[in-house]
Amino acid sequence: MAGTGLFAEILDGDVYKYYADGEWKKSSSAKTVAIINPTTRKTQYKVQVKLLMVLKIACTQEEVNKVMESAKTAQKSWAKTPLWKRAELLHKAAAILKEHKAPIAECLVKEIAKPAKDAVTEVVRSGDLVSYTAEEGVRILGEGKFLVSDSFPGNERTKYCLTSKIPLGVILAIPPFNYPVNLAVSKIAPALIAGNSLVLKPPTQGAVSALHMVHCFHLAGFPKGIISCVTGKGSEIGDFLTMHPGVNCISFTGGDTGIAISKKAGMVPLQMELGGKDACIVLEDADLDLVAANIIKGGFSYSGQRCTAVKVVLVMESVADVLVDKVKAKIAKLTVGPPEDDCDITPVVSESSANFIEGLVKDAKEKGATFCQEYKRDGNLIWPLLLDNVRPDMRIAWEEPFGPVLPVIRINSIEEGIHHCNASNFVHATLQGCVFTKDVNKAILISDAMETGTVQINSAPARGPDHFPFQGLKDSGIGSQGVTNSINMMTKIKSTVINLPTPSYTMG
């Protein structure tokens, strides 16, 4: 059980500590933040019995200042640590993380209602990501570049330029609730292998899972101050963290909060992934069985709470009836219930999320959408719902539900589908998209026309594998993720120029 054994030191009674300067500390703040189990919506203080609710320390601004100062000091020596030693520690952390997959996965089940099997997969995937990053970092950072001056017109060979990648300094990492372990390590590992220190601000829902993950790095033996984890509500300490003068780079995954961060960050380098209304375009010649399977996987896995979930289906009218019937048949087979039972559809993360989704459903009903299933809700649990004959004047056509509700818009041309994807009144449709067709030429042409960071051909959108580039356009993001891109983003080029004396004679 989480909170016992090796993890016991991160608790003070029922309250989780924060992590700074290589130690688990109790905040001087009297504030605590409740983490509610999405399934039961009940609270319970004793972690040893049932992780229904956990209290975590809310850090003060003074404590954040100390964390930043410690991170800045530790980073100077960490940057001088041999690259192979940094990689060795990351490999060790990865092994410990995978060794403790069960208790961390249990936190994911209780905190964010992630199905048990998916929770274990997230932890194992995270360990693999850390190991891969260690290896890729050695390759990328172990190479420099050599330039000579006479390669540019008008110059003699009087200068040699040596370039290498050096760390930015202190990285602030802010992951989202839906993948609080995986999307945290996707920021932590590149930062650390590159010689940076890192301060993690976990989401409220998912904070305990993140704290247990950080403890694995602690057990691996990283130097004090290299990785820290501060907790508290983003509304209370978010601005103080993101605008802190000690931060040299911000890596954020989440929603519209990222736009506010980007406006306040000034000259600080940003890596932002803000979600999107990922579109699925289905042509007449598509394999409709393949399409239906991917709509289920893409639209309803983890109850649709994924930035890469299929969020709108744009299907040619001539095949729409057949496709809708196939999807309806598959939805009928989805299991609905608690995450402990590995159900396909589990409660969404909070009551406010469920209320937002219900608002979109009510709007669609009032405006005449066809309900392929009866709308059903029990607390935070919303049964999977396919909405057919959705029109552009319905909110669900444009807004991101982040839940198990999927709209179908019937189109009469490819151009109509592309227009909906690229419509200027919704700039979030630009993270990922997918196209289903047997005509590779059409697929490539549509991909080129879609204003989105990634287009999947004959597959649902997906972030992984974790070393693939991952980015959005417009308000869906800044920069690119993926292991290699993250390492490069968290470093800068340092040049050393050797000036040679001008020869006083001509070599024979």
Write the layout of secondary structure elements.
Blueprint: E1 11-12, E2 15-16, E3 18-20, E4 23-25, E5 32-36, E6 53-57, H1 61-78, H2 83-99, H3 101-112, H4 116-141, E7 145-148, E8 159-167, E9 170-174, H5 182-193, E10 197-200, H6 207-220, E11 227-229, H7 234-242, E12 249-253, H8 257-264, E13 270-273, E14 279-282, H9 288-300, E15 312-316, H10 317-331, H11 351-366, E16 370-371, E17 377-378, E18 381-382, E19 385-388, E20 405-411, H12 414-422, E21 432-436, H13 440-449, E22 454-457, E23 470-471, E24 477-478, E25 480-481, H14 483-489, E26 491-499
Parallel strand pairs: 2-6, 9-10, 9-12, 10-11, 12-13, 14-15, 14-21, 15-20, 19-20, 21-22
Antiparallel strand pairs: 1-2, 3-4, 5-6, 7-8, 8-26, 13-24, 16-19, 17-18, 23-25
3D structure, described in words:
The protein has two domains: 5-274 and 479-491, Aldehyde Dehydrogenase, Chain A, domain 1; 279-457, 3-Layer(aba) Sandwich (Aldehyde Dehydrogenase, Chain A, domain 2), CATH 3.40.309. Helix content is 37%, strand content 20%. The chain has helices spanning 61-78, 83-99, 101-112, 116-141, 182-193, 207-220, 234-242, 257-264, 288-300, 317-331, 351-366, 414-422, 440-449, 483-489, and strands at residues 11-12, 15-16, 18-20, 23-25, 32-36, 53-57, 145-148, 159-167, 170-174, 197-200, 227-229, 249-253, 270-273, 279-282, 312-316, 370-371, 377-378, 381-382, 385-388, 405-411, 432-436, 454-457, 470-471, 477-478, 480-481, 491-499. It has a seven-stranded mixed β-sheet, with helices on both faces. It has a six-stranded mixed β-sheet with strand order 11-10-9-12-13-24. The N and C termini lie far apart (78 Å).
